[in-house]
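Q: Sequence in, structure out?
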Amino acid sequence: MHRIAKWLAGRSEDDGSRHQPLLSFVVVVYDMPRQAENTLLTLGPGYQDEADPAQYEVIVVENDSANTLSRELVESLPRHYRYFLRENPESSPARAINFGADQARGDYICVMIDGARMLTPGVVRNLLLGHRLFENAVVAVPGYHLGRELQQEAVDSGYSVEEELAMLASSRWPVDGYSLFDIACFSGSSAPGFFLPNSESNCLSIPRDNWTRLGGCDERFDMRGGGLVNLDLYKRACEMRGVRHVILPGEGTFHQFHGGVTTGGEARAVRDAYIEASKAQYRELRGVEFESPSSNPVFLGEIPPQVQKFVHYSARQVLNRRQEETLPLPN
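A: Exactly. Output:
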């Protein structure tokens, strides 16, 4: 039996394979078997609180590489997980996301464009709650990096996969999924905190009708890694007419270090050039500079004790912004 089988198996004897799911996770994986294994563990009904496998499915889309998920792991996945290996994939994950969404059976499509993102245990329950409360909700989970600082900064000080593994081993994860907050910091896209606009979510749940109206991910974002494709999707989804933007401040996605193009896998000069090229492609496609979506979000869910420091930080960001806006102009 695979080492994560108990977390994948869950508490229910019915694995949901005979039911029409409400929620479809689409998880894109490329060249990150260890990190993806952790992500899939955190989606399992044995890890997710009060998660009924009849209500959700997990669609794993792996773009072929020299380091794919092991056959042992794939064969251990419950039947409400479905695995697709795409040979000769594109360098951008946009088409892989759209492919996964085409396989989805749920009423809501939850995009996880980066398979290296571990989740907290209340994500499934609260995503579904958000969709129940509001007919046209787009539900987003804030993002974090494992480690004390952004991984693209930490790598210059020697941060590595080995250090991250030791940090995870010293935490109470996976027995206590919320202990991830104790060993993490806000990601760059969530750096403004909960109460100011963020630029993306790496766990974004969208009603199927809205997904169709959006046209899914824009496959013209064809740069390696996708450039701003996920930011573009988030902005378009949150700014659709009639949408209720729901944020789950008590939950999180946690990026594991794997040498990604923007999170430390390449030299700083290469990363900076990639970011500038991504912004330029967005300008070319949309005709404007990217700005985080403007919305009036609803905050939903419990706030575990481990999240209080991030609530405090987020409030300070708002107070600092207000103070700057009310300061008298210099003579």
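Confidence is low (pLDDT under 50) at residues 11-17.
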